[in-house]
Amino acid sequence: MHRTLARAAFRRGPLPCVQRALVPAAFVAAAAGLGRPALAADWYTGAEPAGARDAWIVSVDTAATVSSQGSQFAGATATAAPAGTLQTSGLRLRADTLIGSYRTGTGLGQQAEAAAMIGYGWVWPEAVLSAFVGLNVRRNEMPGLEASVRNAGGLKAALDVYARPTDGTMVHATGTYASTFNAYYGRVRGGVAVMGGFLGPEVAVLGDDYYRQWRVGAHWSAFQFGALQVGIAAGYLHDQTRKGGLYTTVDMRAGF
User: Fold this and answer.
1) Which residues are the signal sequence here (predicted)?
2) Owning domain of residue 166
3) DSSP assignment letter at 13
């Protein structure tokens, strides 16, 4: 028996330090199924009954994260299927922007990034795999950082897999890397169906030439709020500058 998976992701690109934690890197893929009612799913909102609204060619994802460490960020990502829809294997185009601030040992750091990427989504009945590569530019301001290296551009790559082993479970893993500041980000989430969505644990690691952080928390994904799909996550974080703290992330997705 098969089912349809349709997912859209954020992304958030591999920004230095705290910013990438709040907006994970993400991707869009979809699969067509036969033999039973279709489901639409993504890595942070889970599953909802599929319909005409899920035959998207563009998805827009936004995210905002705050932490007790003094960081706050917001980002938006648009992913498009130029030939076909996001429910079928094929070419993907992605653009994202991010802006935010975070605390360092010597003061306030600020950063902003824009990225453009091209990729491909492979779709199977029970899983989707997406890969992207492209260019990014970033401005990173922090105490002690020389003006000559505050603005940087380079290559960016990302890989994402989403699977539904059973109707009541999901697994998602994503990773990104950028040559600018050697920034990296990885996040793994799992969940079981609860109250129309998925509830489960998440872990994340991130860092760059100037910062490192890890997170452990829980997410509840897959509840509908009007025309939007909404997800929320919260938990414990630890960074090299301010040590332990708490974080909260809110994700939203819309499609066209």
Assistant:
1) 1-40
2) 5-255
3) -
